[in-house]
Amino acid sequence: MSIRWSLTIDCADPAALARFWASALGYVEKPPPGGFGSWEEWFAHHDVPEDEWNDGAYLSDPDGTGPSLSFQKVPEPKTAKNRLHLDVQAGGGRETPWETRWPQVAETVERLKAAGGTVICEYGLGGRPDHVMMADPEGHEFCVL
After folding, report:
1. What is the pLDDT of residues 33-83, one digit of tens each?
2. How far apart are CA 10 and CA 74, in angstroms?
3. Which domains does the chain show, CATH number per domain?
4. In the chain, beta strands by DSSP E
5. CA–CA gap between residue 77 and residue 115 (Å, rounded)
6. Which residue from 72, 57, 66 is spatially nearest to 25, judged by alpha carbons?
7. Model pTM?
8. Distance (Å, whole) CA 132 – CA 122
9. Neighbours of 17 (CB within 10 A)
């Protein structure tokens, strides 16, 4: 039996980074836990100090199949390369024919650049482009393939 899991990303601005990743993955803001009309209501119920209410942001897969993402405010900036990264399979992954996949990868890279991401490098395979390594607005690396 598998175990449900989520991914938490440390960052300086949880709300802004959540907006970027919602755009990148097609995710939506995670609804508050059952019985609460808003996250603010949940925070108040659990005595979370009001000055900490913006210290996190939460996304979920609208289809309910992918893991949820949390963004947690931390005081220190990112200083080294990720040891874990996401592969955004915008083109359907490598099992999709290159002629179909690559235009979708290129379009996604342009969209994510417009949203604040940066291209780090483009990798090739067999003499043609294969995937693009990017960084989100706070420098977390990820690949688009």
Report:
1. 999 999 999 999 999 999 998 899 999 999 999 999 999 999 998 888 888
2. 6
3. 6-73 (3.30.720.120), 86-144 (no CATH)
4. 6-11, 28-29, 56-60, 68-73, 86-88, 118-125, 128-135, 141-144
5. 20
6. 66
7. 0.89
8. 4
9. 24
